[in-house]
Amino acid sequence: MNTGPQAVFRALADPTRRQILLHLASENLAISDIAARFDITRTAINKHLAILEEGGLIKSEVSGRERRNQLTPEPMKSAFEWIGHFERYWDVKLADLQREIEKEMEETKETGK
After folding, report:
1. Residues 57 and 73 sit within 8 Å (Cβ to Cβ)
2. What are the pLDDT digits (tens) for 3-28?
3. Which end of the chain is more exposed for a tag (fewer CB within 10 A), N or C?
4. Taking the mean position of all CA atoms in its chain, how far away is CA 11?
């Protein structure tokens, strides 16, 4: 299991996997329960679950005759930290843009144009 940002981004890249994570955020589910919520094969769901598990975003535990899948969101932290770098970048850029707009608006008021 690789829980670095690369594996997390790979796991999050697919909309079906993101939907699976949303379902698992509410409750632990067996593959049959997950498959019933999608219009794709159980085999396809199993492949999605394998990628989510490789990214460390889920874990599965045997419960009787079935494997229950559970959300493990901690690895997302590395992805959020990486994205956070760009959030700071855009905060600065947007603050600069706001200052320029306010400056232009003030100049327009002063000149009456």
Report:
1. yes
2. 578 899 999 999 999 999 999 999 99
3. C
4. 8
